[in-house]
Fold this protein.
Amino acid sequence: MLLDLPADHDSVLERMAAWGVKFDQFFDIGAARGGWGSKVRKHWPESSIFFFEAAPVWLPHLQQTAARLGGQVEVLNAAAGGVDGEAYFHFDPADPYGGALIDKPGEHAIRVPMVTLDTVTRERSLDGRFALKLDTHGAERAIFSGASRFMERCDFVVFETYNFGPATRRFGQMAVFLEEEFGLRCIDIAEPKWRPYDNALWQLDLYFVRPEKTKLAEWRLA
């Protein structure tokens, strides 16, 4: 008999911890208020946390979150991307959770610093194993292109993905991409959402782990 398990992030993270997923550094890209910090510290209390947020409006909230979480937290006012430098970032104050990297200036575009995950980890001489959360609205492949060394040490990835739009945003293609490029397997989902005008599945968060780093009984179909 199959189970009907809860699909909220707290429940999925509890399952991840029970499977034996471990990491030393957690990177939250698109952190907004930093709500993932307390979720991570609940199950991995010794982990360091790096909040990345390009929209300046969220920085006071992130600083408060960092102070509440205590030590081993760093806030970076930057976008993660494929190269180091600057980028255009779409930020509409009326939709503060909808920020995204864009190719050229336009309405609500701001100029922000951009760094690669490889640069951040190299400059800080970080060791141990990594975990990565992305809420970046289609910029995932660009971020991965600047994280080749980072991904060699990354055992856990969670990110928001979609059912429509370019292939680089759709969950099926991204699940194959992470397995083929980095050896990570999709093991869970969280918070699926449906479009209001036709009830079609719109988005969901995918959870990936490195199979050999878990206590799961098997990875083949029964």
In short: Residues 12-213 form a domain with the Rossmann fold fold (CATH 3.40.50.150). Helices lie at 9-18, 36-43, 59-69, 117-123, 140-145, 148-152, 171-182.
